[in-house]
Amino acid sequence: MKKRLFFWLLSLSLYQVAYSQGGVVTPSQNVNLIETFTGSLSELKAYSNGVLYIANDGTDDFVTYSLDGSAFATSESLVLSSGNRLSSWAGDSQAFYYGNNVSDGVGDKLRSLTSGASSLLLDSSDPTVAVTEVFRVDYGSGDVKYYFMAEGPTDGFGNIEAIINESNGIDETWEVDPELDPDSFVPGTRMQIKMSYANSAGQMSGTVSNGAFYFLADSPGGNGNYSSIFKVNYDPNYSEVELVVNSGSEVADWDNLIVTDDYYYVCMTSSSGEALSMNYIDKLNTDVINEVTDILFHSDKPLQSNNRIYGVGEEWINGAKNKFRKLVIVDEQNVATLIHLNAVTEDDQVSNLVLSGNKIFFTATPTGGSQGIYAVRTDVSNPVPVLVEDLAGKEFKGMVEVPDGVAYAMWDGLSGNVVISQGFKDADYWLHRGADNGNYAWGEITDLVVNGNTLFVAEKASNGTDVNIWSNDLTATEFSIANARFTITDSESQAVIEGASLSLDNGLETYVLSTDAAGQDVVLNIPSGWYNYILSANGYKTVSDGRVWIGAGSSEKSLTMEVDNSTNISDKDLDEVMVYPNPAHDIINIKAIKTVVAVRIYSLTGQCVKTVEASDINTINVSDLQNGMYVMVINYFDSGSSTFKITKK
Questions:
Q1: pLDDT in tens, 604-637
Q2: What pTM does this model have?
Q3: What is the Cα–Cα distance from 469 to 457, expressed in whole angstroms?
Q4: Which domains can be identified in the chain, with CATH numbers?
């Protein structure tokens, strides 16, 4: 913590190089300057093994790329402010963008970048006009296709036909025909697809699921258009577009499509930005449009993890909206639950959701406090938000997924900061750049982009005219890692306690230890920081509110327990605390002389995988657990606990 505070103060206050008898005093640099240009950055995205950006110098737009993340070249210049809607992907040397190259004489058109070479994707004779971003679908065995939507003819009611294009990005682009219309009186007539308002504005709400491309557009209705879900049925020789779900409503305006194994999810949208309902459709019964009850969803893109949907929503109570922004979880039964940082009647101001591994990171603001970055686990039913970073006095500048965590940027008006986090604020590390005109503090961060194991950071240079792009090797992690050996002893006799159960919890991870004959157990390679702990052993008072600091490196920790004479269990009684069968397939029976009120089962990595609480527990169903070994902690009504190793087969 002291080291981190030191670096923060250093980055905040060092505007000139500080000298001492030992020379220049600077943080250890862990980023490399790879690009500097004069102008303004419009878009920066991952491309091939590097990045691709559109920028302008006040006279022209220019498209610049790096295939390897170190060497940069400009592909072409465009008319000022015409470059936009950049679509590119990590590991792919194909990219797309819109722009006007005057040498083509066709205006603002969709352009292709192939291994650094720019060209017009569709020639000037093409009657359709591409309007949306581009989606990439990898069909395997090197067969990659790209999809975008173009405007076709307009009917007599002002509705624009949507043309779905499939391309290899180089020399083949063709229209994908809709499937035949089964309701048409004219044989061979194909179904119509219409542009939605979002499509016409350049947005193509789509998703790739199990190697298939799904997208939202409109289909003709009685007096207007119906929001609908479509799917591209890919064939190397002849793909077709299939109508999957028709909303049947001319007032429905769907966005934020998510496709799971069992359901389609879409959110209603509003031009005013108000929260509206989420619909879900069973894939086996697409004629029925269901609604997630009692919760309205904001326009933030929902995320999917562990068979749950995570979004930003508010309660819908008796037809009234409270206009709050809370984290909302939709479970496998499509029941929505709000996660409250503040009281139920107070706004959490949740935004900026990022999924990384089994955690969702987001920004929120506690009542009476400052905005902060929080994290919750996605593999528990009712997660509790854990503070990752207090943004007091700082402006949030962006957050992206990195392996097993996030990178986020802050700005206090004078200097910026970039932090790599796995959700454990005492174990995170900061990025430190080299000197810029004698200033070692970051400028204002404008973009964070990840490509594989490299993080790219764009900042405004201190001279006010340049933009710097830096790279950081994400494999060279600097997280603060701890190892600790715990010794548990009797507070009076100092005798070691065998079989004591110690549960360490930092809010996002739980580690369970069980002492050996020497009263010891070791925890290895855990994030340094503060841990709440529960310590229990037969015949001793349970410590349920302990707190211990585990610092970086290796350390010895000693904890003591007091004998609980009122609940001490004799050796004879211990023989009557039985857990059977073990191994078990589905049901484990618990026979104890005392009333069991809670059972928690932990994986060998310390993750709590099952919790049961009741007034008198006699059986536990473990059929939902994966086969393997676990630690079961049994808690009794009047205090005390027992720990068993069990096997699920």
A1: 666 788 889 888 999 999 988 888 778 888 888 8
A2: 0.84
A3: 6
A4: 1-30+400-476 (no CATH), 35-126 (no CATH), 481-561 (2.60.40.10), 571-648 (2.60.40.3080)
